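Reopening closed ticket. The problem is back. First fold of the pair:
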Amino acid sequence: MSSIKPVQKSLREQPTPVPVDSMAVAMTSNGTPCVAAPPGPAPEPRIAENYTENGREYHGFRRGKYMFPCDEMDRMDIFHKFFSVARCDVLHSAPLSSPVEELRILDVGTGTGIWAIDM
């Protein structure tokens, strides 16, 4: 019957500890530590400036790719016009029993209110 003996590594085979103050430590493929200097400060992201065209301010990031203005009110009015044209100026789909002049409409969350004015 054979007995299994534990294997002891000599102290010379043990890697020496590396101080890790502000250094980044990684292990190489053979298991030895690889010390690298910490990365420098991250570069600041380049933010493109907005530009003004025809009295409206547009995003400068990827100029020309996003065709709507930065101002939310202008953008919402343009969307209202798009949907009005797409729906042939039909402002509602609900069946109305009485004339529109006699109805009351609660304007909640309809943007700039241009829909309620057109209604």
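Second fold of the pair, where the issue appears:
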Amino acid sequence: MSTLYEELRDQLNQEKGAALATVVRGIEHVGAKLLVFPGKRTSGTLGSAALDARVIEDADHATWHGEAGTHTYTVDTSTGTEAYDVFIEGFPPPPTLVIVGAGHIAIPLTTYAKTLNYRVVVIDARAAFATRERFPHADELI
């Protein structure tokens, strides 16, 4: 497995978003990949600093909206203006479900939410209700 995919896997395992951009058409660097993290930190390159800079904004947007699609960019090169098609796939962080009240309805709701890849927080002032035994799948108990 390439380092780029390992970085993406690690980012997603930490429940943080990212976007992966791949050159799918251009005069060169087809298949080159750029991984864009929240805060616009990057790993890899699409083969051109100018192209990387243009793609980062769209990749950051794709991260937060979970979008995927092909974008066309024109970049000035030493031989003229070149067009590139870049496929950008956003991987947003999981949404958070906050359940207020640790009553009997909250138990299956927690299970359903985890099945749908939500981060689940259960809040209840009653310590006897908001327990790990009752909510083994909750990410956080308050």
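Update: turned out to be a display glitch only; the data is intact. The chain is about 25% helix and 35% strand. The chain has two domains: 3-91, 96-141. Please close again.
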